[in-house]
Amino acid sequence: MRYDVDAIRADFPIFETGIVYLDSANTSQRPRQVLEAMDEYYTKFNSNIHRGAYRFSEIATEHYESTRAKAKRFLNARSTREIVYTRGTTEGINLVAYGWGRKHLTAGDLIVLTILEHHSNIVPWQILAAEKGARLEWVDIDEQGRLRQDQFAALLEQSPKLVSFGQISNAMGTINPYAEMTAAAKAAGAMVLIDGAQGAPHAGIDVQAVGCDFYAFSGHKMLGPTGAGILYGRREVLEEMDPFLAGGDMIRTVRKEGTIYAEVPTKFEAGTMPIAQVIGLGAAFDYLEGLGMSSVRAHELEMTEYALEALSEVPDLTVYGPPASERGGVVSFDVKGIHAHDLATILDRHQVAIRAGHHCAQPLMDRLDVSATARASFYVYTKREEIDVMIEGIRDAQRIFA
Amino acid sequence: MAVQGGRPSGGSAEHGRTGGTPPSEQDEQFYREYILDHYKNPRNFGRLEAPTLSHEEDNPLCGDVVGIDLKVSDGQIEDVRFHGRGCAISQASASLLTERIKGQSLDDARKISKEDVFEDLGIAISPARVKCALLSLKVLKVGAWGLGDWSGEEEE
After folding, report:
1. In chain B, is it the N or the C terminus that has fewer CB atoms within a 10 Å radius of its CB?
2. Whole-angstrom distance, CA of residue A330 vs CA of residue A379
3. Which chain B residues touch A if contact means CB-CB below 8 Å?
4. Mean pLDDT of B70-99
5. Residue A341: partners with Cβ closer than 8 Å, 6 or more residues away
């Protein structure tokens, strides 16, 4: 079946505004199907889940729980018990740092991160390391933005307790060899968390084949609404973890003398959850499944190749990161003499939305010795013509700043 | 909410298109000639050898840096230099500020408000760029006057 980008775009009401949206690595747009799924909940059976002994609550619960089955299928997890609903990637990583890290890490333990990480996969470990007296080591990159596997292997020889890294870099687009890295880290006896914030929307994953212990991602970068994400955890690991947030729903029984927690994953889902958003995320899984993740990846590769080619023809422009085949739909670049923010402001006047800044990856910016880069990112609905408009805007900026 | 500069022809088309004006014309209104001139040929750029006061601040969000050196004698700002790097707005704003305060009394410089800075820039500053525009004023306020908690830009 041919990939029909115009048909896909027709599902996204926002494109009626004329926006050239090249910031999907930041947050994606949402198709009508996702909006309708949430609307249906609010207008047809709005009620709280898991507790009402009436029909609406049963319907709401059924819709809410069906997302778990879709996530299980999307990730190829063994069981829906391995699917924890979160607010997003950040909460998922914090949940692991708190529920697993605080219980199992002790002074002197090693946590291995990489220089490509988003702040969300740095700061929780810094806090944990400071609390426990653990230490952090960072895998560096080579000149093309690839993780230095020789250095990673050397760090594994120091028997880290935890290795945590992104599947795809949000700032550079590098697709890390996550399966190989996970296998090596598991062989070295480490726990492995993969930050799937960029990986889940653009590549997907088979958690059983890869063998990671945790996989955290957000719904809002993969066509779903903000406020709902998923933490996958291997069941055995989740079961012996401490809860993260405490309160309603995450308990089995509460007595004055003490509390017995609910079973996983409910143990990690305290308070009233974002029901509509979880239902919306379910519709996003359906939408992506309809397209097929391999088609999504193929389309993004095509857009990335096209963009890299077009950008290479612009004078005084530096692109960061690896070639298209090793990169997700993300292109970070710098135009000589024009600060990324000025470029973004001028592109905004061409109705082009890109990200300008440090991309929540300041250690990487320091490593590259830049204060900010411009970043264009692509998704299922991106068209070549939109990349053309961006290029035109960049040339316009160069003319203004000449 | 946009902050409208005081100069009459300042870019009023802050977001999106109005009428049939092609985008590049609006860009030129936004990055007006003298803003770009101040960016490319900053006035009073460099360091003073023995400054009376010297302070530097950065905007970690976008990596803009501005530092200002002042030579003050009998309550008058005799000389000023600024250094830094960053976007056109932050650097032009710093350059314009040094022109404004050079030769001024400290008392007068003390009275400079963020509105004055916007007026000097003469263009509409979108909310995302307010911090860039006011970085040099922050350096002046925090450094030279010790107003450590000055939060003028947050009031926007």
Report:
1. N
2. 9
3. 15-17, 23-24, 26-28, 30-31, 36, 60-64, 85-89, 126, 128-129, 132
4. 94
5. A356, A357, A372, B62, B87, B89, B128, B129, B132
CATH number of A5-30+292-401: 3.90.1150.10
Could you read off the pLDDT of B76-85 as tens digits, one per residue? Answer: 999 999 999 9
Q: Is A360 a catalytic residue?
A: yes
Are β-strands A352-353 and A317-320 bridged in parallel, bridged antiparallel, or unpaired?
A: unpaired
Tokens representing A193? 């968390």
For chain B, the structural domain boundaries read: 23-147
Q: Is the dihedral of CA A279, A285, A291, A295 positive or negative?
A: positive
Q: Which residue of B has its CA nearest to A356?
A: B62
pLDDT of residue B154: 44
Answer whether B16 sits within 8 Å of A357, measured CB to CB.
no
B23-147 CATH fold:
Sufe protein. Chain: A (3.90.1010)
Chain A residues bordering chain B (beta-carbon distance below 8 Å): 339-342, 345-346, 348-351, 356-358, 362, 365, 370-372, 393, 396-397, 399-401
Per the CB < 8 A criterion, the answer to whether A231 and A252 are in contact is: no
**What stretches in chain A show pLDDT beneath 70?**
1
- Mean pLDDT value across chain B: 78
Domain positions in chain A are 5-30+292-401, 34-290
Hey, what CATH class is A34-290 in?
Answer: alpha beta
Q: Above pLDDT 90, what percent of chain B?
A: 49
Q: Which residues contact A130 (CB under 8 A, 6 or more apart)?
A: none
Q: What is the structure's pLDDT at B24?
A: 53
What does the pLDDT read at residue B143? 72
pLDDT level of residue B146 (50, 70, 90 thresholds): low
